Amino acid sequence: MKAVRAHRPSLAAIVVAAGSSTRFGRDKLLTPFAGKPLICTTLEAVCQVPVRRLVLVCRPDDRAKMEKYVAQAALPRRVHVFLASGGLTRAESVLNGLKTLVDNGASGQDWVLVHDGARPVVCRALLKRLLAARDMGDIVVPVIPVVDSLRRTSAGRTEILDRRGVVAIQTPQFCRVATLRSAYLNCADSALFGDEAALIESTGGQVVTVEGDVQNIKVTLPGDAEMLEAVLGARAGTVVGFGYDVHRFVSGRPLILGGIRITSALGLDGTSDADAVLHAVMDAVLGCAGAGDIGGMFPSSDEQYVGIDSTVLLGHVMADRRIRRLRIVSADITIVAERPRLRDYQVPMQKRLARLLGLRSTDVDVKVTGNDAIGWIGRGEGIAVLCVVTALRPTKEERKAVR
Ligand SMILES: Nc1ccn([C@@H]2O[C@H](COP(=O)(O)O)[C@@H](O)[C@H]2O)c(=O)n1
Ligand SMILES: C[C@@]1(CO)OP(=O)(O)OP(=O)(O)OC[C@H]1O
């Protein structure tokens, strides 16, 4: 989040994410959809065109979480992200974003895309249509035709509305920084306007429309969650990664599995804390990206890994560029151990793993089984863990955008 020096016209984005999610029922922007918090998907989507400065406008209470999600998002290296505080209205939030943009070196001649944080699937083709129409008016907006019949309801009575020529307005809305700034300066009450196009038009500016995209949905109602998952799933390909790990029981070490301390007379031997569950999970995650294994990433010959907490290693795996580009969708784990009894730890492990992987606990399954007293596992000499992780691979467009 460092300052950028002013230069000839460049592209910026303001993403407004300071709403209260009242109609959705929980904080939709921080909720994972198809394995990624919604806001990360939106930020990645808007950066499919060469954005240099990106202002994320959020509620002051969400600032720390948003900083974390910005760091998690797979954004191109050219993008400098700044956070701004939201206001009481959308207009106030956009104005705060605009001030932050200008304070961080954007010039009036720069171009800005103002986008709803809750529209995570804006496609590159739509962004390019906006950029191509930049000189045709004062602000460019995407629109889609209204296909349903319309009625206005009031006090129990309804009246038919003529839908001919009626379009629904989407975001991003695209204009010069100076155009947006002067619209705010010249408008008595910007809160009266629902979007930037209405505001700019009210001060005499010309609005240009381009074709929007029906998939560019604004996640608003609880039912939109399924629609969003379906759109994201349809756009990406599923990949599967498999992981396997074995560690030997020894005395004098704690037993840690899935990031949870287990009551046991014996622990597992290893360079690290020997958390075989996390090791199998990490290998499965890496497998989804074709990124090798943990032995290659964290060699046992390297002293820095002696006694290391495996949740720290998982943090490194999740922060790897190749992994950040994926959407981890599910993890299915089987622990093969004759003893100790692990049944009571299944749910705590499931919850811990879900948090570490950024998943809902229903997307993680932890199974435990013995080995019918057969062989080395049956004799209680060690344990084995198997794990399958599924993930969505980014679309070709997303891969091109993040180098
Ligand atoms: N270390 C273990 C192994 C098994 N369990 C629980 O017992 C069930 C039956 O185990 P099998 O060895 O017959 O597959 C298994 O589903 C687990 O619920 C356990 O708690 N700890
Ligand atoms: C976790 C690492 C870290 O050096 O070591 P160990 O704890 O020995 O675990 P193992 O699964 O045998 O090897 C993977 C290593 O990356």
UniProtKB/TrEMBL annotation:
Substrates-to-products reaction catalysed: 4-CDP-2-C-methyl-D-erythritol 2-phosphate = 2-C-methyl-D-erythritol 2,4-cyclic diphosphate + CMP; 2-C-methyl-D-erythritol 4-phosphate + CTP + H(+) = 4-CDP-2-C-methyl-D-erythritol + diphosphate
GO biological process: isopentenyl diphosphate biosynthetic process, methylerythritol 4-phosphate pathway; terpenoid biosynthetic process
GO molecular function: 2-C-methyl-D-erythritol 2,4-cyclodiphosphate synthase activity; 2-C-methyl-D-erythritol 4-phosphate cytidylyltransferase activity; metal ion binding
Site residues by UniProt (Positions MEP for the nucleophilic attack): R163, K218
Functional pathway: Isoprenoid biosynthesis; isopentenyl diphosphate biosynthesis via DXP pathway; isopentenyl diphosphate from 1-deoxy-D-xylulose 5-phosphate: step 2/6; Isoprenoid biosynthesis; isopentenyl diphosphate biosynthesis via DXP pathway; isopentenyl diphosphate from 1-deoxy-D-xylulose 5-phosphate: step 4/6
Cofactor entry: a divalent metal cation
Amino acids binding a divalent metal cation: D245, H247, H279
Residues where 4-CDP-2-C-methyl-D-erythritol 2-phosphate binds: D245, V246, H247, D293, I294, G295, R379
Keywords for the protein's UniProt record, in alphabetical order: Isoprene biosynthesis, Lyase, Metal-binding, Multifunctional enzyme, Nucleotidyltransferase, Transferase
Residue stretches in coiled coil: none
Designated name of the protein: Bifunctional enzyme IspD/IspF
Originating gene: ispF
